[in-house]
Amino acid sequence: MTNWSATAGTLALAALLAGHAPTAQAKTLVYCSEGSPENFNPMINTTGTTFDANRPIYNRLVEFKNGTTEISPGLAEKWDVSPDSRVFTFHLRQNANWQSNKNFKPTRGFNADDVMFSFERQWKDSNPYHKVSGGGYDYWSDMNMPKLIANIEKLDDYTVRFTLTQPNAPFLADMAMDFASVQSKEYADVLTKLGKPELIDQDAIGTGPFELVQYQKDATIRYRAFAGYWGTKPKIDTLVFSITKDAAVRMAKLRANECQVAAYPNPADLPSLRADPSLTVLSQPGLNIGYLAFNVVKKPFDDVRVRRAINMAIDKKAILEAVYLGSGEPAKNLIPPTMWSYNNNVEDFKYDPEAAKKLLAEAGLAGGFETDLWAMPVQRPYNPDARRIGELMQSDLAKVGIKAKIVSYEWGEYRKRVQAGDHQMAQLGWTGDNGDPDNFFATLASCAAVPNSATKWCNKDYDDAVTKAAATVDQAERAKLYEQAQVVMHDQAPYFLIAHSVGFQPIRNEVTGYVMSPLGGHLFNDVDLK
Amino acid sequence: MIRFLFRRVSLIVPTFIGVTFLSFMLIHLVPGDPIEVRVGERGIAPARLAQLRHEFGYDQPLWKQFVDYEVQLAHGDLGRSVVTRESVWREFTTLFPATLELAVCALLFATLVGLPLGVIAAVRRGSAFDYGLMGVSVTGASMPIFWWGLMVILVFSVFLGWTPVSGRISDAFFIEPWSGFMTVDCWFADDAGACRSAWSHLILPAIVLGTVPLATIARMTRSSMLEVLNEDYIRTARAKGLAVRRVVIVHALRNALIPIVTVLGLSVSALLGGAILTETIFSWPGIGHWLIESIQRRDYPVLQSGTLLVAILVIMVNLGVDLTYGFLNPRIRR
Question: Which end of chain B is more exposed for a tag (fewer CB within 10 A), N or C?
Answer without folding.
Answer: C
